[in-house]
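USER: Fancy drafting a protein?

ASSISTANT:
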Amino acid sequence: MIDAKKLHVAIIMDGNGRWAQERGLPRLEGHFAGARAVERTVEAAVEAGLGTLTLYAFSTENWRRPANEVSGLLKLLRFFLYRKRAKMIRNGVRLRWLGRRDRVPPALRRLFEEVEHETAGLDRMTLVLAVDYGGRWEMAQAALRMAERLQNGAKENKEDIEKTFGACLESAWLPEVDLLIRTSGEQRVSNFLPWHASYAELYFTPTFWPEFDGNHLQAALAAFKSRTRRYGCVPTAKQSS
């Protein structure tokens, strides 16, 4: 029996632009529709009793998109936080930010940090928004921290080096990813949580993100529960049953 409270589900929300293009709409309309899918999915995750939900909202590579699209995405994120902060509090949802904080607009950073502070004591579910996040950036920063520790005279036990390196990550506080979902039919992880998703179960769906809802989340969870997680070992009879 799987305890949903212990599950960490991470989602690469892909397909907003293609959803809009198929309908002859501007790409930003796809992102607006995607924001509504975020609302539905967060509510469904709370109802399912998940412990942690991480959404890939804006990657380090997304800065390369057209300026008007980048501006629209960041404004939409600010609007989402402003509009949903009260509901997060009512539902017991704790918000956390994963990613760089030095490059986003100051107004968005202030609002995000306000909501983080307001929800810090809530424990029904943790909602992590990965904003200006990239796995390679995170790993590089951790390597720099490790180098600084060594330069400052720290003595590292080679047997514990993996644990020590993990503690240097920006996401050191984040639990291991159990299920990684990607929408829109693409089958790659796109620089998302390489450390924490090392043993995640992968679930790919052709559904564009704006169409994703609670039923799609339940289908992904059902697929996850049907799998046997081996972690490189031979499963025991109990695990196989």
In short: The chain has eight helices and six strands.
